[in-house]
Each structure stands twice: as C-alpha cells, then as structure tokens.
C-alpha cells in the first residue's frame, strides 16, 4: 500500500449506519485493511454506545463521532467533554446552535484534554445545512431566506469565527467555503454518490471524484458502500476514483 493510497483512503469516511454492533462489525471485517475513517452516527451510537467507539479506537481506526450536538452551551460543553474522553478523532455540533454553543464545545474538549494527557485533540466541526435540505425546504419550511449556498457560507464563517476546525456541508459548496474561509478550514462532505448509484434522500449530491476536485477535505459515504452487493469492491472503487481526481 503506497503513501498516496493511504492518504486518500484516510479521506474516505465510511458511515457505519447500522442498528447494532454486530452488523457494523460485519462491515469492518469486510473492509479490513483499508485505512479509511469510520463514522459512528446516531443509529449505531444509540444502540451500541461508547463501548463500540472505544473498541474502534482500540483496533486503530480513526473515528468521527457524528452526533450533531445542538443544545444550550452548558449541555454541549458537557457532551463535548464526554465525547473527547472517548478518544475520537472528530466530532460535530450544529452551527445553528450559535457562537456561544460552538465555543462551549471547544471548552468541553479542552477540559477533557487538560484532565488526561494521553488524549489527542479531536477535530471539532459544525454542520452547516444538512445535505437533505433543498432550496424550497430552506425557504418555505425552515423560513431562512436566500440560497442554500448563502446559508452554508454564513454558517461556515460563523463556525470559523468561533474557532472550530471546519464544517460539514455538501461537496457542491466546498469550493465556496474554501474561498470564504481559506484552505486550512476543513470541509467534510456527505451526499456522495458514485455515478449510477441510488440518490436516496440526499438532495445535493456529487460523485467522489467531483468532490475531491471541488476541494472536499474528507468525503462521507454510507449507503453506496453499506448497501452495495460487494462493499469492499465499492470502497476500493471509490478510493480509486478519489486517486484519479
Ligand atoms: O448513506 P449516505 O451516503 O447518504 O450517508 C451519509 C451519512 O452522512 C449519513 O450518516 C448522514 O447522517 C451523514 N450526514 C449527512 N448530511 C449532513 C451531515 C451528515 O448526510 N449534513
């Protein structure tokens, strides 16, 4: 395995969206040896809990804990402290929670780090607009005027000003975010669909190659791998496409 492959595979975040640890473990066996990031979201975390996350870390995986915290600052601070103690590499909050809430997440992480020198500082990122949100939904349902792009850039700038490491957004917005916030600001982009795969509930989708060319730091892929007949082949194909981009 060469360095470029390792580096690119490390930018693929596989969403372990499963109802229990056994099913997630089956995918891990399937993908064994591919040095990708693993994402634990609400479905798996609420079923398998912190033990599953610790187990992933013991096995050497990079872990993104995707719990999208959105609560009053004090509660998010406590949540971030507990999450950081799990030793995860990345976690997130909703930018819509505002500046004080985002800063509280950083304070919670710092508190955990100060109490345990063996912990590594996690990347703390914020969700801008969910990739399932389309223009009509943003304007008519949620009541935010303007384009999805405007809302995303506004959230990205707010996130950066609060001192976080980056944002979750659609890959379609990654280039604009980099222009607004600079290249050092991380963009994690779900809503990735290799050509010919089912779009599902995602609205703002791009292929893996388009996402990398567009400036995504990391791409998040769930169903195109987890629901594939051959998940390992699907993951290898995605990494190949990322490398070619
Ligand atoms: O199956 P699919 O590839 O659509 O999975 C995308 C993953 O990324 C899911 O785990 C979803 O929760 C997550 N996600 C998202 N949009 C965001 C943030 C996270 O789709 N804005």
From TrEMBL:
This protein's name: Orotidine 5'-phosphate decarboxylase
Family: Belongs to the OMP decarboxylase family. Type 1 subfamily.
Organism of derivation: Paenibacillus albilobatus
Pfam families the UniProt entry points to: OMPdecase (PF00215)
Binding site for substrate: 17, 39, 66-75, 131, 193, 202, 222-223
Gene Ontology annotations of biological process type: 'de novo' pyrimidine nucleobase biosynthetic process; 'de novo' UMP biosynthetic process
Alphabetical keyword list: Decarboxylase, Lyase, Pyrimidine biosynthesis
Involved pathway(s): Pyrimidine metabolism; UMP biosynthesis via de novo pathway; UMP from orotate: step 2/2
Residue ranges annotated for the Orotidine 5'-phosphate decarboxylase domain, each copy included: 11-238
Keyword Lyase set for record: yes
Cellular component, GO annotation: cytosol
Quaternary structure (record): Homodimer.
Gene name, Swiss-Prot/TrEMBL: pyrF
Role of this protein: Catalyzes the decarboxylation of orotidine 5'-monophosphate (OMP) to uridine 5'-monophosphate (UMP).
Molecular functions per Gene Ontology: orotidine-5'-phosphate decarboxylase activity
PANTHER family associated with the record: OROTIDINE 5'-PHOSPHATE DECARBOXYLASE (PTHR32119:SF2)
Active-site residues from the entry: 66 (for ompdecase activity), 68 (proton donor), 68 (for ompdecase activity), 71 (for ompdecase activity)
The UniProt record lists the keyword Lyase: yes
E.C. number: 4.1.1.23
Catalytic activity: orotidine 5'-phosphate + H(+) = UMP + CO2
